[in-house]
Design goal:
CATH superfamily of the largest domain: Homocysteine-binding-like domain
Enzyme class: transferase
Number of helices: 17
Family: Belongs to the protein kinase superfamily. BUD32 family.
Helix content: 40-55%
Strand content: 15-25%
Distance between the termini: 30 Å
GO biological process, one term: methylation
Largest sheet: 6 strands, parallel
Number of domains: 3
Structural class: alpha/beta
Mean pLDDT: 84
Catalytic activity: L-seryl-[protein] + ATP = O-phospho-L-seryl-[protein] + ADP + H(+); L-threonyl-[protein] + ATP = O-phospho-L-threonyl-[protein] + ADP + H(+)
Oligomer: single chain
Keywords: ATP-binding, Kinase, Metal-binding, Methyltransferase, Nucleotide-binding, Serine/threonine-protein kinase, Transferase, tRNA processing, Zinc
Radius of gyration: 24 Å
């Protein structure tokens, strides 16, 4: 990479954002996508393991994100440290070579993408892929000292009283030097858990006089402070005071906290703000498990943006913000339901409108496809891209959630329970064989039509097309967790659903095999890095 004068560093991101139309999109979860491609990441090196075993998968994931519209891709170096490689028996030289390799793979993916754009005869879209010759940045990821320890301290920020700024600088120094020299466009200091590590990063950038910009991204578990309990305002002020830091933000944080954290950061800096929250789960460092959040719907808050930057995680490339309202209305004399996706004032207007209309149309297409596959959904009356609304048939009847909760109070009516479970399994099997994943299979999104007792699936706002057994398995797993948490009094209703799914789906075997894996690692996976 061509050396930059440090005095011009702050302008790099703003110029990039100007060319990107005022907002940029980051790629998503690298490890999640690597697992979807078949990688086994059960190792303290986490996704960095693939630098050794399957670099082609990393390149493939980078390309997938670029073709999905990402403007910034992050290298597979979050968990990659020289000390970590040495602990696995590799030499220091090999460890440094692997760090450089993480950047080289991302740069190669960008070059390959540009070549595909050059050869494409389309106007930016081809087979659902975005092939547009646009500015793309490669960010070299630097995970915290806690990430190297692989003991959950990256999510607690507790390094012990003996840890010092000097010790942290020495831990990170050579790693940052090697990554910077490998040619990325910037360094991404991610999931910064405490003030002492932020100070170490800032001093390191200044001491080494690295001619490369950086961003600092903190994580929070209370919406006020970083995870260690240190003041977010103080941490963000450190980033503000470092000239080479060109953006400040939040990652790996429950979506319900994002808005307030953005406002807090804005109090101490005018630098662009980046946001890439997690799925809504929180990491319990004592239990070493990801546990469900206290907000039922925050896992859907997938795409949150502010000011000049927008960042999204893995599922976010297919998901939508839960920022809509549903109300009853009348359409051509018929009782109807209107779902309105309203604008986010903290998001760039052009990007907001583009994303809103895209998700509106995607939801309508998924509903229509579901009906073609033989799954009952509300009749779609109208799509309004100006008002950002979908108008549906009003379905008379209770939700499956209400029926199952009533069973918990008055006793299970076994025949009705079996009928509903059979209909659920049959419907999901048809969706999955048709390449459609619902994305939000909860009993709240299932109705029973009064006059026919027919199951009706609603809310396709998170739906997407996929033939991957992994996606289908996750769809089933979401339903299973919802049933366990809300309807345990109904017994093993999931077993009945899966039995019906097996009869309905011709592809049940591969999905069930993957479901077993998802159950092991999913929302109660053990943290390995």
């Amino acid at each position: 990479m061509e050396a930059r004068n440090v005095s011009t560093t702050p302008s790099l991101m703003r110029e990039f954002l100007r060319k990107a139309g005022g907002a940029a999109v980051i790629d998503g979860g690298l490890a999640t996508e690597l697992e979807r491609h078949g990688a086994d990441l059960n190792d303290p090196l986490w996704s960095a393991k693939c630098l050794l075993t399957s670099p082609h998968l990393i390149r493939s994931v980078h390309l997938d994100y670029l073709e999905a519209g990402a403007d910034i891709i992050i290298t597979a170096s979050y968990q990659a440290t020289i000390q970590g490689f040495e602990a696995k028996g590799y030499s220091r030289e090999k460890g440094e070579a692997l760090l450089r390799k993480s950047v080289e793979i991302a740069l190669e993916a960008r070059d390959m993408y540009y070549e595909r754009c050059r050869k494409s005869s389309s106007d930016g879209q081809e087979d659902g892929k975005i092939l547009k010759n646009r500015p793309i940045l490669v960010a070299a990821s630097v995970g915290s000292y806690g990430a190297y320890l692989a003991d959950g301290s990256e999510y607690s920020g507790d390094y012990g009283d003996a840890m010092t700024v000097e010790a942290l600088k020495e831990f990170h120094r050579r790693r940052v030097q090697v990554l910077a020299e490998a040619g990325p466009d910037l360094i991404a200091f991610e999931t910064v858990p405490n003030k002492i590590e932020a100070q170490a990063y800032a001093e390191l950038l200044e001491e080494e006089d690295l001619k490369i910009p950086a961003w600092f991204s903190f994580n929070s578990k209370d919406g006020i402070n970083v995870v260690s309990g240190d003041s977010l305002l103080e941490c963000a002020s450190i980033a503000e005071s470092c000239e080479q830091v060109v953006a400040v933000g939040i990652n790996c944080t429950p979506p319900r906290f994002i808005h307030e954290l953005i406002l807090a950061i804005k109090k101490v800096t005018n630098k662009p703000i980046l946001i890439y929250p997690n799925s809504g789960e929180r990491y319990d460092a004592d239990r070493k498990e990801w546990v469900p959040s206290f907000s039922l719907h925050e896992e859907h808050a997938a795409c949150i943006s502010f000011g000049a930057l927008e960042f999204r995680s893995h599922n976010n490339l297919r998901a939508s913000v839960m920022c809509s309202r549903v109300f009853e209305s009348v359409f051509v004399g018929k009782r109807s339901i209107v779902k309105e996706r309203f604008s986010k004032k903290y998001r760039h207007p052009t990007l907001d409108s583009k994303l809103t209309v895209k998700r509106l149309n995607a939801e309508a297409r998924c509903m229509t496809k579901a009906r073609r596959l033989g799954v009952s959904t509300p009749v779609l009356y109208a799509v309004d891209p100006v008002l950002h609304t979908l108008t549906f048939e009003y379905v008379e009847g209770p939700s499956v959630k209400d029926i199952f909760l009533e069973f918990g109070l008055t006793g299970v009516v076994q025949e009705r329970l079996d009928d509903i479970a059979t209909q659920i399994g049959d419907a999901i099997g048809k969706l999955h064989d048709g390449g459609l994943v619902h994305g939000d299979l909860t009993t709240s999104n299932m109705l029973i039509r009064n006059e026919t007792n027919q199951l009706v699936l609603i809310d396709f706002g998170l739906s997407f097309t996929s033939t991957l057994p992994e996606d289908k398995a996750v769809d089933l797993y979401v339903l299973e967790r919802a049933l366990i948490s809300m309807h345990s009094s109904c017994g093993n209703v999931m077993d009945r659903i899966l039995a019906a799914y097996k009869k309905s789906s011709k592809q049940w075997s591969s999905t069930f095999n993957k479901l077993a894996q998802v159950r092991l690692r999913g929302r109660k996976r053990t943290m390995v890095g």
